[in-house]
Amino acid sequence: MKYRHFLLTFMLAVPLPALLAASSPAFAAGGAAEGQTAQPGAQLQVALTLYAGGISFGKMDMDATLRGSDYRTVSNFQTSGAVSAFWQSEIQATSSGKIGAKSLEPDLYDSYDINRTGKKQEVSLTYENGSPRLYADPVYSTTGYEVKPNELKNTMDPLSALTFIVSGVAADGGNPCALTAPVFDGRRLYNIEMTKVKDTDIKMDNGLYAGKATQCQIRYRPLAGMKPRVLKSGESFPVINAWVVNYPSGVAGRSFAVPVRVWADTQYGQLSVVANSIKIDGQAPKS
């Protein structure tokens, strides 16, 4: 059980929002805004595999579209392999909102999760004036670890945070790692803090990419609302590393900063997330 909690916390920190996921109603609500449908959209589609100690334990795909001043992202996650013996989950997530000068402003996040027993959990965050309003079915208790309303201002849902990271919106002088994403997932408030380590040349083992990349460090900083079982685990959260590759879009002024490999060395072995398929504007980029 302790290993499961560590995996969950690692996924929160990546962040891979499929573990916090979203429900089908957002597919209709998250489309392009009226008047935006004729504009070209920059699109990123990526499929990833999750590993623990070199053994696959899940798959995720993400489809993000930036169209004019709007964004919409859909994500799906499913556990697989031996890990399903103690943790099985199928999760869908969607998020939509506005693109700011250096940030994203979410409008709606919906989540839908089915575990191995068939239990379902829906979570929705609706944003008004930069603050989220939570809906959960079934309702879950936050007594004893509430997040104060003033702390929620200008936060992002997990899927918007991932979209923010890959969108390149916050890139400073070509540095895709100079950003902090404040995240509220309905229960927890935390920062995802990224910093640049170095420019590097990489060659992925699966042959997906070889060439220039930026190596980044990702730190997970809990702020409020954390459950005691996470806070009192007696372990410091490991530094997460990522290789980030810049992929230009055919839409003028848009490019994507894609983490093609994310990993952390832990007492449980290396946990990693590896991209195995990438499409930009519907086409596989040339490596």
Q: Could you explain how this protein is built, in words?
A:
It is a single chain. By secondary structure, the chain is mostly beta strands. It has one domain. It has four helices and 13 strands. It has helices at 2-13, 25-29, 158-167, 228-231, and strands spanning 41-52, 55-67, 70-79, 89-99, 104-115, 120-128, 131-137, 179-184, 189-203, 210-224, 240-248, 255-266, 269-280. The chain has a 13-stranded antiparallel beta sheet with strand order 7-6-5-4-3-2-1-13-12-11-10-9-8. A hairpin with a 6-residue loop joins β11 and β12 (255-266). The chain is globular, with a radius of gyration of 18 Å. The model is unreliable at 1-5 and 15-36 (pLDDT under 50).
Could you give a quick summary of the protein structure above?
The protein is mainly beta and 287 residues long. The chain is 11% helix and 50% strand.
Name some characteristics of this structure.
13-stranded antiparallel β-sheet; 287 residues; mainly beta; disordered N terminus
SSE blueprint:
Elements: H1 2-13, H2 25-29, E1 41-52, E2 55-67, E3 70-79, E4 89-99, E5 104-115, E6 120-128, E7 131-137, H3 158-167, E8 179-184, E9 189-203, E10 210-224, H4 228-231, E11 240-248, E12 255-266, E13 269-280
DSSP summary, beta strand count: 13
Number of helices: 4
Q: How many domains make up the 3D coordinates?
A: 1
What's the overall average pLDDT, rounded? 81
Order of helices and strands: HHEEEEEEEHEEEHEEE
Largest sheet: 13 strands, antiparallel
The fraction of residues assigned to DSSP E strands is over 45%
What is the radius of gyration?
A: 18 Å
Question: What are the segments in which pLDDT stays under 50 over at least 5 consecutive residues?
Answer: 1-5, 15-36
Distance between the termini: 40 Å
SSE-based structural type: mainly beta
